[in-house]
Amino acid sequence: MTRDDIDGEAPTPDQARRQVEHYGLEVDPQAVLVAVRLISAGARVGRAAEAHFARFGLSTGRYRLLADLEDHGGEKSPSHLALDLGVSRATVTGLLDGLEREGLIARRPSTEDGRGTVAVLTARGAQRLRDMAPDHFGRLEAMVGGLSVEERAVFLDLLARVVRGSAALTAD
Amino acid sequence: MTRDDIDGEAPTPDQARRQVEHYGLEVDPQAVLVAVRLISAGARVGRAAEAHFARFGLSTGRYRLLADLEDHGGEKSPSHLALDLGVSRATVTGLLDGLEREGLIARRPSTEDGRGTVAVLTARGAQRLRDMAPDHFGRLEAMVGGLSVEERAVFLDLLARVVRGSAALTAD
DNA sequence: AGCACATAGTTAGCTCCCTAATCATTTTCG
DNA sequence: CGAAAATGATTAGGGAGCTAACTATGTGCT
């Protein structure tokens, strides 16, 4: 129980086991440990990502929006963006507001749909992506550098399955 | 490229590859994919967890605090809680405020340190944990039910290593 | 044609967690 | 012993994302 698991490895297997035992439940402590660690790790990595993007004056959400826009030819409707990014339309509105204020995207009315708007990546937005690319992708690569190619493939598979399983949290 | 990857599997390997190629970087697209998927999955699972705990009138942070408190005998200082939960002391203050308002914890001044406070799990707090335990742990188990015992062990190992690697995002 | 209903986008208000600054107590040390 | 530094907790303020409600435009059905 040495205190050099700098944290970040919380909770411990013992904690998981004690909790389950405490309530006399017939639940696999290891399964609980995996679930809780993922939730905890997700928050942790999310915060690290937020700090990372802050270097470039962006947030995780704003970066993801810019990148998605560029990958899609530089134009996309807010609804479509919300769908592809997996966030609400209201969130996209907020992200676009911030990006527009900094001149990284522009909004223009849709030509086909009177209700619609199209978000357009500006030259400045593209430039921002270009500027941060080497550092950004370099750090991402370093992040998983400790895993072999095979391990990465396994991780992707397991991660996808657990994420799919996370529907169990919200079911009903 | 069928559109039945309900999302949740975003981004695609193709997107990762295109992005890296676009900037002519010598970065492994698979590594980028793993990193980006983890960031995305973390946010997704985090939101699912938040919705899950909301059922019981709690948030992820508040639940984690209560659980940690119980596991520690029902008493702990805010600073110690912050350390063990991996959040800032200011966040713990906020969590305690909410929990105290609902009568799930109480604050009493520390007897040893004039500056200190001790958070105490109340009977109501313990009851809340007891009430939610079957549903809560059941769902957690279901979440990772798709993985075999061996796969869970592998996942724990890989997850820990990637989390450790995420320091690369904030380094410097 | 006209009216119900769906859809695009935004706004308002909420919670989560963070950092930075503040205040009160220790603790340390010249 | 008394000043400086460290530590515990809180407050103030900010950004992310959410839901629900609202406006405006499109679509469809009778």
Automatic annotation (TrEMBL), chains A, B:
SMART domains noted in UniProt: HTH_MARR (SM00347)
Coiled coil spans: none
Molecular function in Gene Ontology: DNA binding
InterPro entries linked: HTH_MarR-typ, MarR/SlyA-like, Tscrpt_reg_MarR-type_CS, WH-like_DNA-bd_sf, WH_DNA-bd_sf
Transcription listed as a keyword: yes
Alphabetical keyword list: DNA-binding, Transcription, Transcription regulation
Domain HTH marR-type: 31-164
PROSITE patterns, A to Z: HTH_MARR_1 (PS01117), HTH_MARR_2 (PS50995)
Protein name as it appears in the record: DNA-binding MarR family transcriptional regulator
Highest classification ranks of the organism: Bacteria, Bacillati, Actinomycetota, Actinomycetes, Kitasatosporales
